[in-house]
Design goal:
Helix content: 40-55%
Strand order of the largest sheet: 1-8-5-4-2-3
Radius of gyration: 20 Å
Bound molecules: 5,6-dihydroxy-NADP, zinc ion
Number of strands: 8
């Protein structure tokens, strides 16, 4: 196990009816801006419930944050906050709304130039407006981590950034708010969380038994309850388990002291910004082929994963690794997230533009060993058509 420091200051208010505790988590004199997406929280009545819960605070709202939040839209929120003096933010929605709120929280106090440079030039985020979240889609883990991904459409860039200053102060996780999710987003959420775990687990052995068992436990929960969530939209126990699994998949805990990959995610971001696929759809396409391309480096963990998660114990090591990858692909398909470019109407024309974008974002040595080079990515994309 490698040395590590671990801190996560986000307070989690988990379970049915936790919105009743929202007001006490925000300073009484705060001027609160509620940020949300394209309207699902209005349709479901959650926005009204949030405003009711905050009736003793000064509250404003900013809607319209799109999936894969854009710099262009978020800078409008920055202008509104600077103009009207909001000093506490509340994100109500999925990962796009929460990530967008993190960018806004960092951008408002950033006066040394274009806030986009926080991403493009990796400038440090030393201070940020305080914010909390009310999560409506279990997927990203953004509700309990300090990272965010923002898109700048005009330059076709989707980049990540992070800072200890960007942990939410608190997050309300009420599984009932996920009942309104369309099947497509239930599938996306399960696949995204699954791949988060794989990026931190399916690497090279690190004698990290606790992290491995935690990761395997989270994967088994997704495999058991993912299909149940598609079959039954209002099973509280199933939704509660998926919600807590997705949060624990990327709050830093299972990534402590172990090597991390993230090559599938970096390739995925380029596919989303170039071709508009949902985040999880890109991961479902790339991961199975990436595991196959990197099976020599990932040999031991692939066999452990196959045995402990899928019960694969017979056959040659080659056969067992191939079976583990095949089971992974079938699971994504069973969650209604197709794993081939052709299923999204795309073909071999995507390969060069994706490689060019990776090159321009200096993402040419990816993965836990830096061995995911443009040649490897070309092979991976070619095997995913
Ligand atoms: O915009 P609204 O109208 O709210 O509708 C959303 C959106 O259209 C809808 N939705 C959300 N909750 C709902 C609902 N519809 C009905 N009922 C509900 N309860 O679902 C759609 C997708 O929402 P979005 O927030 O985009 O999805 P997700 O949570 O998957 O977030 C994806 C974004 O997070 C980034 C991705 O790159 C992408 O931009 N990620 C953030 C990470 C992080 N901060 O750590 C890590 C991830 O790897 C990922 O990169
Ligand atoms: Zn992800």
């Amino acid at each position: 196990m490698n040395n590590f420091h671990f801190v996560n200051p986000t307070k989690i208010l988990f379970g049915q009816g936790q919105l009743a505790n929202l007001a006490q988590e925000i300073p009484s004199g705060a001027k609160v801006l509620v940020l949300y997406g394209g309207g699902s929280v209005q349709k479901t009545g959650l926005l009204d419930a949030v405003k009711q819960a905050l009736k003793s605070h000064a509250v404003g709202e900013f809607g319209g944050i799109e999936p894969n939040p854009t710099y262009e839209t978020l800078m409008k929120a920055v202008a509104l906050i600077r103009q009207d003096g909001y000093d506490f933010l509340l994100a109500v929605g999925g990962g796009s709304v929460i990530d967008g709120t993190k960018f806004v929280a960092a951008a408002v106090p950033f006066t040394q130039g274009d806030p986009w440079d926080l991403l493009a030039k990796h400038l440090p985020v030393t201070t940020a407006l305080p914010f909390g979240t009310v999560l409506t889609l279990p997927a990203t883990g953004s509700e309990m981590n300090s990272g965010a991904v923002v898109t700048r459409r005009e330059i076709k860039a989707k980049l990540a950034f992070g800072s200890p200053a960007l942990f939410p102060k608190f997050s309300v996780l009420d599984p009932v708010y996920t009942y309104t999710l369309p099947a497509k987003q239930v599938g996306n959420g399960v696949v995204d969380a699954f791949v988060h775990i794989m990026e931190q687990y399916l690497t090279s052995p690190a004698e990290a038994k606790v992290q491995d068992r935690f990761a395997e436990g989270l994967l088994l929960t997704l495999i058991e309850d993912g299909p149940r969530a598609l079959a039954d939209g209002t099973n509280y126990a199933v939704r509660a388990n998926l919600m807590w699994t997705a949060t624990l998949a990327l709050n830093g805990l299972i990534g402590t002291g172990v090597p991390q990959d993230w090559s599938t995610h970096m390739v995925g971001h380029e596919i989303t910004v170039l071709y508009g696929l949902d985040h999880a759809q890109t991961l479902a396409i790339v991961l199975p082929s990436m595991l196959d391309a990197m099976k020599a480096e990932k040999h031991d963990k692939l066999l452990q994963y196959g045995e402990r998660v899928w019960g694969i114990r017979s056959g040659t090591p080659e056969e067992r690794m191939a079976e583990a990858i095949a089971q992974t692909r079938s699971f994504f398909e069973a969650m209604q997230v197709p794993t081939r470019f052709s299923s999204y109407g795309l073909g071999k024309e995507v390969v060069d533009p994706i490689l060019a974008n990776l090159e321009s974002h200096k993402m040419v040595k990816l993965g836990e060993g830096g061995r995911v080079t443009p040649d490897v990515v070309r092979r991976v994309l070619g095997a995913s058509l």
